[in-house]
Amino acid sequence: MGTGTGIGRVRGLGSAKHGSHHWWQQRLTAASNLLLLVWLVVSLLRLPLYDYRALVLWLSSPWASVPLILATISVFYHLRLGLQVVIEDYQHDFSRVIALVLLNFYAIAGAALAIFAILKVAFSGAVA
Amino acid sequence: MARNPARPLSPHLTIWKWGPHMLVSILHRATGSALAIAGGVLFIWWLTALAGGEASYAHFIDLMTSDRTGKLNLIPAIVLIGLTWSFFQHMCSGIRHLLLDTGAGYELKLNKMGSIATIVISVTLTILVWFAIFARGI
């Protein structure tokens, strides 16, 4: 490498064949966010949010807890993809690596916490 | 990443006349970041408070709404209303992006109308939602 013609030097260095993966995942999660969060907003507006028992009863149904878990996965994946682009645009030195690692920690830990909390309410709520 | 300072930069923010499409573009990033961080943390907080039982949830609701005297907690109210608007703005702007991805809506007039529409719709939805919430008392 480095001695051939211009085209020879760059041949084979191109697309890793996943160039559109990030873009496509962001659109896909945008669509699922739209469906799941419109459902969530409508549900929350219909619920008495201050009422612990009403919320527990709501989440003890799979028709509420499952879409809420799906919404959590979709939202945290989408925010990870989105903030990744923001970090890549503004951070240029080693701080970029640190920010990206922290972002991944936040997205995964946040989603895990939220999902665990939903499941805990869903599984123990009906007894209480 | 070393840049030769003698080389010219492509025209950037300072040189363009601001239009609604530019505002909506940067708002998409700003509202997205706000939702991702503040919205995400609040969402986790809400669910973990709920999972913590009746007392912990009551504490969360007190914190978000009003103190014992019944007075509205101003900072949570501003944050919640701000996040509601951010959500609707990001949603409308996101739908606009999905439409633009198909290659439609780049005519100057239509593009401008579309970007103004996202703001009008997001503000309207925010007002409607919070009117509904205050009308019935959370």
Automatic annotation (TrEMBL), chain A:
The keyword Iron applies. It is found in: Membrane. Its main location: membrane. This is Succinate dehydrogenase hydrophobic membrane anchor subunit. Its cofactor is heme. Membrane-anchoring subunit of succinate dehydrogenase (SDH). Pathway: Carbohydrate metabolism; tricarboxylic acid cycle. NCBIfam families: succ_dehyd_anc. It is a multi-pass membrane protein. It comes from Sphingomonas vulcanisoli. Keywords: Electron transport, Heme, Iron, Membrane, Metal-binding, Transmembrane, Transmembrane helix, Transport, Tricarboxylic acid cycle. Part of an enzyme complex containing four subunits: a flavoprotein, an iron-sulfur protein, plus two membrane-anchoring proteins, SdhC and SdhD.
UniProtKB/TrEMBL annotation, chain B:
Signal peptide: none annotated. The chain crosses the membrane at residues 26-51, 72-88, 116-135. It comes from the Bacteria. This is Succinate dehydrogenase cytochrome b556 subunit. It is found in: Membrane. Membrane-anchoring subunit of succinate dehydrogenase (SDH). PROSITE patterns: SDH_CYT_1. Its main location: membrane. It is a multi-pass membrane protein. The keyword Phosphoprotein does not apply. It comes from Sphingomonas vulcanisoli. Part of an enzyme complex containing four subunits: a flavoprotein, an iron-sulfur protein, plus two membrane-anchoring proteins, SdhC and SdhD. The complex can form homotrimers. InterPro entries: SQR/QFR_C/D, Succ_DH_cyt_bsu_CS, Succ_DH_cytb556, SuccDH_FuR_B_TM-su. The keyword Cell membrane does not apply. SUPFAM superfamilies: Fumarate reductase respiratory complex transmembrane subunits. Belongs to the cytochrome b560 family. Keywords: Heme, Iron, Membrane, Metal-binding, Transmembrane, Transmembrane helix. Its cofactor is heme.
